[in-house]
Specification:
With 171 residues, this protein is mainly α. It contains 7 helices and 2 strands. It has a two-stranded antiparallel sheet with strand order 1-2. Helix 2 crosses helix 3. The longest helix is centred in the first third of the chain and has 25 residues.
């Protein structure tokens, strides 16, 4: 059998996709700031709905309304993160604005349950006085502690292939 020419072998093997680049520390900090700006007004509305000061200047830790509003805001924050990160957008509004997608280890969209696991694990990053976020500085794929625990990466949008278009006739 004759040896395959260079042109034949190039046609046979698909070109490998360029490696993804991952969101670094400062980009992630900026997304948290943007998401904080997005959520400040809904959080204030929840506090007012519970009969509290909109900015939390009347915190009375013995008042059950304080704890109810805090729980409602935590639930709102969790839904905001998990629903958007598991959606087709693959990220919160802050993540979308800064060109970040939350993906699994194979750079695919994550499920809502994985987004929930990431959100819950994020509390470990928070409760370690932020040290869980600093892990991002030393990991190859720029993962924070909660990303490692949930099996997620934050990939930069421009380094990912465009999502496949929806097929006609499907909904």
């Amino acid at each position: 059998l004759p040896a395959a020419s260079g042109a034949d072998s190039a046609r046979a093997a698909p070109a490998a996709a360029p490696p993804a680049s991952f969101a670094g520390f400062w980009r992630r900090v900026t997304t948290m700031f943007v998401d904080g700006l997005v959520l400040v007004f809904p959080f204030a509305i929840v506090r007012v709905a519970f009969g509290l000061d909109s900015m939390g200047q009347d915190n009375d830790f013995e008042d059950p309304r304080y704890w109810s509003a805090t729980f409602a805001n935590l639930l709102l924050w969790g839904l905001y993160c998990t629903l958007l990160e598991s959606s087709a957008a693959q990220g919160t509004l802050g993540q979308q604005a800064l060109g970040i997608r939350v993906c699994d280890g194979q750079l695919r969209r994550i499920s809502w349950l994985r987004a929930c696991a990431r959100f819950v694990a994020q509390w470990l990053s928070i409760l370690t006085c932020g040290l869980g976020y600093l892990v991002n500085l030393w990991t190859k794929r720029r993962q924070a502690l909660h990303d490692l625990m949930a099996g997620c990466v934050l990939a930069r949008t421009e380094s990912l292939p465009a999502p496949a278009p929806a097929r006609e006739g499907t909904s």
